[in-house]
Each structure stands twice: as structure tokens, then as C-alpha cells.
Write a structure and sequence with these properties.
Blueprint (H helix, E strand, L loop, with lengths): L1 H8 L1 H101 L2 H51 L23 H8 L13 H11 L17 H8 L7 H4 L4 H16 L31 H6 L22 H5 L15
């Protein structure tokens, strides 16, 4: 009872302490909550990391054994293939050796026989010697033939020269230049002059009309022949033949030089220069040194045009000319050449003596 009374007496103090403790607990609750969360997260992280580490070790172990198994399988397969390749190579090498030995034996026995090859080369050498002998004889024959031909040409030249200089032959009274009295024997040219016969030069005969007709007949060999009786309204073969072989007779205008006018002008200038009395330059009485006077209507003086203004006036730029001479117009065509072998005239015109 005394304790209860004591509590009753200290009730306000106890309530104040409880309130103070409740406030302090409420104040510290959030801090403790954060601390508990931190501790729990750290513990849970440690547990999860240890579990993940365990799982990684297990996965690594499984992968290691699986890769070992696969590597062993691949090694066995490659080893098997390598053994097969070695066996094939061994068989191929032995087959090559067998074929090499057999082919060498076959070629030496049936293809490249040494003694038959030696006999073949001996026959070729003998044949070559025969051909070389024939070629040597043929070369000597050609050389002798060429010398004989050259000798004949020299003799012909000497005879031709002797015919031209036959007046140098010796006579009974006067010896020639090739038969001097100081020589023991006459020269070879003297003997040739005595043996050759002097020939008078042939006179050139003026061709007549019949000969011209014969010449025209010979020219027809190079052209297709003309029919004697053409069908239809055609000209006679004689007119066609005259027209075909008619010589070209251009007019005076065609025969004149194209630059005859310029040449004549140059000759006239030279003749004028020869005929004039003095060489002083002619000067007129107009004085060109005075300034240009002002216009009666305008007030500004005359101003020389600038380069741009001169270019605008289309002055000729002689630096761009291809030639120093000016432009020359072309002449029209010459109708004489267009009429050649297209017009018919009288036959006597072709063989006129003019």
C-alpha cells in the first residue's frame, strides 16, 4: 500500500518522465530505422554476393569441364584427319616414285633411245653438209652470173661511149689520143673505137594524123572498149573517143596567177619609185599640230576617247590577226573545169595545130 501511495504521489513526475522518454524514442526512431536498414542491406548484400560468387564458381567449373570435353572431341577429330592426310601423303609419294621409275624406264627404252638419236643426228649432219655444199655452189654461180652481167653492162657502156666519141679514132695519117706514139701499144679504148661502127642520129619525124589515131587506139587498151553500134539515141563512138581523149585547154583566166593583181601593183610601185625625182615624204599644207577647236554649240572641249571607249567603237585589234594581210574574199568557181569531159565539140578542135 505504501508503494502504491508512493507511486500516486509521484504520478506527475512519472508521467513527465514517460512523456520525455516517448519523445526521445520518437526522435531516435528514424535514426535507428536508417541504421537498421543500413545493417540489413549490408548483410543482405554480403549474402547475395557470396551466393553469386558461389554460382560463378559453379558455372566456371561446369564450363571448364564442358570445354575440356569439346576440346578433346575436336582434338580427336583433327588427329584422325591428320593421320588420314599423312597416310594419303605417304601413298602419293610412293605412287610418284613408282611412276617416276616406270616413266624413266619407258622413255629411256622406247622414246629417247640414245643410239637411235645418235643415228638421227648423224643423218641430219650429213644432210646439212649436202645442203651447204649446194648453197655454196649456187652462191658461186650467182656471183659469176652477176660478174658476167656487170661485164656485159660495162661493155655496152663502152660501146655506147665509143659511138658517141667515134671521132677520136686513129687514122693512117693522124693517131688518136688513145694511140699515142709514146705508148708501146694502143689502149683498150682505141680497139673498141675501131671495132664499133659509127651510127648517124635518127631524125625526129613529126607525127601525122594517122599516127595520132594509132596512139589513141593504143590508149584504148587501158580503158573498156566501146561498142561499134550503140543502141539508142547515143553519139557515135568516134565522137565519144574524141571527147574522152580531148586535151584540156583552159582559158586565160584559168592560166593567170591568183595573186597577179598584187604582183602588178608591187611592180607599179617599184616602177614609180624608180621614176620619181626625190625620196622626200609628201606633206600637205594642212597643219595637224593645232588643238581641236571647241564647237559653236557646245561648251566642253573635245576629249580623246579612252581605251574602253575605243574598244566599244569596234576598232580592229591587229594583235589577234592570224596573218598580217587583211581578209580576202574567195573567188567563184572556174566553170572551165566543170565542163571538162562533159561537153562535146567538133572533132577537128582536138587536133588543131594551134
Amino acid at each position: 500500500m505504501a508503494a502504491f501511495l508512493e507511486l500516486r504521489r509521484n504520478a506527475d513526475q512519472i508521467l513527465g518522465e514517460l512523456e520525455y522518454l516517448a519523445k526521445e524514442a520518437e526522435y531516435v526512431r528514424e535514426y535507428e530505422n536508417r541504421c537498421a536498414v543500413i545493417v540489413q542491406s549490408a548483410w543482405r548484400g554480403c549474402c547475395v554476393r557470396s551466393h553469386i560468387k558461389y554460382l560463378n564458381r559453379c558455372a566456371t567449373l561446369i564450363q571448364t569441364w564442358w570445354r575440356i570435353y569439346k576440346a578433346k572431341a575436336i582434338f580427336r577429330r583433327k588427329l584422325k584427319e591428320h593421320v588420314i592426310q599423312l597416310r594419303l601423303k605417304y601413298y602419293d609419294d610412293n605412287a610418284v616414285k613408282i611412276q617416276k621409275i616406270w616413266r624413266g624406264y619407258y622413255v629411256r627404252k622406247y622414246v629417247l633411245d640414245y643410239y637411235s638419236r645418235k643415228r638421227y643426228l648423224a643423218s641430219i649432219e650429213q644432210k646439212n653438209e649436202q645442203i651447204r655444199t649446194q648453197l655454196r655452189d649456187y652462191r658461186e654461180y650467182l656471183g659469176q652470173k652477176q660478174l658476167e652481167q656487170q661485164r656485159q653492162e660495162n661493155i655496152a657502156k663502152l660501146e655506147e661511149e665509143a659511138k658517141k666519141t667515134h671521132y677520136l679514132v686513129s687514122t693512117k695519117v693522124v693517131p688518136g689520143i688513145y694511140n699515142s706514139k709514146y705508148l708501146e701499144a694502143p689502149k683498150e679504148m682505141e680497139i673498141i673505137l675501131r671495132t664499133t661502127k659509127f651510127e648517124l642520129p635518127s631524125k625526129k619525124v613529126k607525127p601525122t594524123r594517122n599516127q595520132k589515131d594509132q596512139d589513141i587506139a593504143t590508149l584504148t587498151k587501158f580503158l573498156p572498149p566501146l561498142k561499134s553500134k550503140p543502141q539508142g539515141p547515143f553519139r557515135t563512138p568516134e565522137d565519144v573517143r574524141y571527147q574522152r581523149y580531148r586535151p584540156l585547154k583552159p582559158s586565160l583566166r584559168c592560166e593567170t596567177d591568183f595573186f597577179a593583181t598584187e604582183k602588178m601593183r608591187e611592180e607599179l610601185k617599184l616602177q614609180e619609185w624608180v621614176d620619181r625625182i626625190h625620196d622626200d615624204t609628201f606633206k600637205s599644207g594642212v597643219c595637224r599640230d593645232k588643238h581641236y577647236p571647241r564647237m559653236l554649240v557646245g561648251e566642253e572641249p573635245y576629249i580623246e576617247p579612252t581605251k574602253l571607249e575605243r574598244a566599244a567603237l569596234r576598232e580592229p585589234n591587229k594583235k589577234q590577226w592570224v596573218d598580217e594581210k587583211g581578209f580576202r574574199s574567195l573567188v567563184h568557181g572556174i566553170p572551165e573545169f566543170d565542163k571538162f569531159e562533159t561537153t562535146y565539140v567538133e572533132p577537128h578542135f582536138y587536133y588543131s595545130t594551134s
